[in-house]
Write a structure and sequence with these properties.
mainly alpha; 9 helices; 0% strand
């Protein structure tokens, strides 16, 4: 399973490295979203700093939809999905590999968006490690749910519009917990203020990674 996951992740990352879709479309989309949020909030730096945690995660969620749609599109072209079915790759490895490729792209994106939040919104982080851990855990959850629901919508003609409808409500716990953790890190209070929400992210990640490993194969067969 782990060998198959590494093969699939390497394949997807090589495709992205050659096409540069994540660099030329997904990352600029996230940056533009942050700029538009800044315009919507106006010149009040205090208000912008207060809204920075939630706006960061909203931009990440929207960018995740684009990254997952790209991951699905890679398998939809030229019968690639059928080729993977016939290749003998473990479905659990396929899920983990595609999720890992999406997660690595999101980690780079989140680093860029975090820098944008600090520069544009004037946000000040007092407990940096809380931010780092929340981004890692949030990325795992978003990549797992995105990959799972991307597979659910892959065989449908309306997958471009169905995927956000399926994914965004399910990803709400990541938005909530991530925002609360950012707020705790910016407030500079005791770390326990944020670690409570970290536990929620850990549970969310465990549930959706386990669910994806179990049901990804049947979903692929039905798609």
């Amino acid at each position: 399973m782990w060998r198959d996951a590494a093969l699939v992740a390497g394949k997807d990352l090589r495709i992205e490295a050659r096409s540069r879709v994540a660099l030329s479309q997904v990352a600029p989309f996230g940056a533009v979203a942050l700029v538009l949020f800044a315009f919507a909030l106006g010149p009040d730096r205090t208000l912008m700093a207060k809204g920075a945690p939630g706006l960061f995660w909203v931009a990440v969620l929207f960018s995740t939809v684009l990254a997952v749609q790209r991951s699905v599109a890679v398998e939809s072209a030229d019968g690639a999905r059928d080729g993977l079915r016939l290749s003998g790759i473990d479905p659990a490895g396929l899920f983990l590999g595609k999720g890992a490729a999406v997660a690595l792209q999101l980690v780079v994106l989140e680093a860029l968006l975090a820098a944008g939040v600090l520069l544009l919104y004037g946000a000040r982080v007092e407990v940096p490690w809380l931010i780092a851990v929340s981004c890692v855990l949030g990325t795992v959850g978003l990549a797992a749910t995105g990959t799972l629901y991307g597979a659910l919508s892959a065989g449908l003609r309306v997958r471009e519009t169905l995927l956000p409808f399926l994914f965004l409500p399910i990803a709400a716990p990541v938005l909530l917990a991530g925002t609360r953790i950012w707020q705790a890190a910016m407030a500079g209070g005791t770390p326990s203020d944020g670690t409570v929400w970290l536990r929620l992210l850990v549970v969310f990640d465990a549930v959706y990674v386990a669910l994806g490993v179990v049901v990804y194969g049947p979903i692929q067969e039905a798609a």
